[in-house]
Structure formats: C-alpha cells, structure tokens
Write a structure and sequence with these properties.
This protein has 312 residues and is an all-alpha fold. It has one domain: Rhodopsin 7-helix transmembrane proteins (Rhopdopsin 7-helix transmembrane proteins), CATH 1.20.1070.10. Helices cover 77% and strands 3% of the residues. The chain has 14 helices and 3 strands. Helix 7 packs antiparallel against helix 9. It is globular and about 65 Å long.
C-alpha cells in the first residue's frame, strides 16, 4: 500500500512567495536581476583571482571557490522559480525536487566549510605570519577543498536517500519557492524519525562545528590584535579580515534568523520570504563586500579593466 501511495504522484506544487497575480511580473524581474548580478559579480571575482598573480594566495583561492559555490547555490533554485513564474506553472517533478534538494544542500554546506577555512586562514596570517606559507601550503588547501567536497556530497546524498524512502499522500503543496528539505519532510505521511535524526546530526556536524571554528579563530585574532601597540598595526590586522567577517555575519545571521523564526512561527510563507536573504541576497552581496572592502581585489579589478581597455 505504501508503494502505491509513493508512486501515486509525479510532482510537487511550489506555492512561491506570493499568490497575487499582479506580483508575479515584479517577482520575475526582481529575481532575474538579482540572479544576473550574482552570476556576473561572482564570475568576475573568479576571473580576477585567476588572472592576477598577486591574488594567487590561499585566501583568494578559497574566495574564488566560494564565488563558484555561490553561483551554483543560486542556480539550483532561481532558474526554476523564474521558469515557473514565466510559464505560470507552479509544479516541479518528484525527480526535479530531489535533484534540487541535493544540489542546494551540497552547495550550502560547501559555503559553510569554505567560510570556516577562510577564518582559519586569517587566523594563521595574523597570529602566525612567519609560518603562514608553511602552514597554508597549496597541498593543504587542495586537500581541505577536496575534503569539503566529499563531506558535502556524502551528506547531501544521505539526505536525498532518506527523503527517497518517504511516502507522500495527497498534500503535495510546498510553501516555498524551492524544494526546501524541511518543508518536503513535513508533507510525508510515513515515519520521518530517521530524517529528523540525520537533520540534527548534520546541523551539528555541518553547522555548529564550522561556526565554532570561526568563533575560535576570530577570538584568537582579536586577542592577538589587542596586543599590538600601534593603532596603525591594529587597523591593518582588522582590515585584512573585515570583508570575510562581513560575509560570515551576513550568511550566518540571515540563515540562523530564518531557521530560528521558522521554529517559532507556523507561517511557512513568511519563512520562505525571509529565506530569500541567505539564498539570494547574501550570494549577490558577497562580491560587492570583497570588492569594496578589500584593497587587493580592488587593485586586481583595476588592473584587469586596464588590460581589457588597453587591448581594445
């Protein structure tokens, strides 16, 4: 009987951010603009770090990978949302929903891991500058990135397989603009205990541990910086990690805010609207934060523009 229920349907319904017909054109152009800005801005960061030899350092290696992850992160949700608005169809196939969940979790966790190792990179650069090149070697950076990919792929695969075993009955409406895993699990009419256990375990492993690493790294950075006697030295130390701290605060602040608010309110549509902050707005703002606050990035962008202009 459960198998019959499982094969009874072929698609979910994504309710989106608004049911009002007059809001759909506004949402389409707004999210299309944000997606194009996100794609172009992060692609520019990647090209700049590849082109400019001054940026061939661990910090910018991870920054370019963060930009790549952000492009993929937004590409898992926004194009499908735009397509549904354009064709005025809110459906997403069962297979498409699972695929969207898999890649959304993968790149969200990859973002978290990269942000945590970037905090460690700043800690080594400020607290152990003489050993920076030895500690943050290209081999270590490559191994860390590979480990992050493996962990993200395995956890997203595990979550997808656990959702695959669930059965769904009649209520197939997801109060979101993409297949958010918590919303999908709520629709299941079979036992979801394993999914909930894995979710708490993954939250601890993929969320709390990296966040704790970031907090420890910055507490050591602050402690080390306060021991610097000159005001100029303190400013230089803090300015080297200002961009990253801004990105971390934006990503974790909006992400935690959404999930804490969703735990205290039953309004799924409000949570979906709030989740736009960390799923769309944060990846869009990251390139601007680094471009405006980081002298190395600004200098590299000027050299890149000058080279392109001169060649023309």
């Amino acid at each position: 009987m459960e198998q019959a229920n499982h094969t009874k349907f072929s698609e979910f319904i994504l309710l989106g951010l608004s049911d009002e017909a007059q809001m759909q054109p506004l949402l389409f152009w707004l999210f299309l603009s944000m997606y194009l800005i996100t794609f172009a801005g992060n692609l520019l960061i990647i090209l700049t770090t590849i082109y400019d030899s001054h940026l061939h350092m661990p910090m910018y290696f991870f920054l370019s990978n963060l930009s790549f992850s952000d492009i993929c992160f937004t590409s898992t949700t926004i194009p499908k949302m735009l397509l549904n608005i354009y064709i005025q169809n809110k459906s997403i196939t069962y297979e498409g929903c699972l695929t969207q969940m898999y890649f959304f979790i993968l790149f969200a966790e990859l973002d978290i891991f990269i942000l945590s190792v970037m905090a460690y990179d700043r800690f080594v650069a400020i607290c152990h500058p003489l050993h920076y090149t030895t500690i943050m070697s290209p081999q270590l950076c490559g191994l860390l990135l590979l480990a992050f990919w493996i962990l993200s792929v395995l956890d997203s695969l595990l979550r997808g397989l656990l959702v695959l075993r669930l059965t769904f009955c009649t209520d197939l409406e997801i109060s979101h603009f993409f297949c958010e895993i918590n919303q999908v699990i709520k629709l299941a009419c079979s036992d979801t205990l394993l999914n909930i256990i894995e979710m708490y375990f993954a939250t601890g492993l993929m969320g709390i541990i990296p966040l704790s690493g970031i907090v420890v790294s910055y507490s050591r950075i602050v402690s080390s910086t306060l021991r610097i006697t000159s005001a100029r030295g303190k400013y230089k130390a803090f300015s080297t990690c200002g961009s990253h701290l801004s990105v971390v605060s934006l990503f974790y602040g909006t992400g935690l805010g959404v999930y804490l608010s969703s735990a205290t309110t039953q309004n799924s549509r409000a949570s979906a609207i709030a989740s736009v902050m960390y799923t769309v707005v944060t990846p869009m703002l990251n390139p601007f934060i680094y471009a405006l606050r980081n002298k190395d990035i600004k200098g590299a962008l000027k050299r890149l523009v000058s080279t392109v202009t001169f060649n023309e």
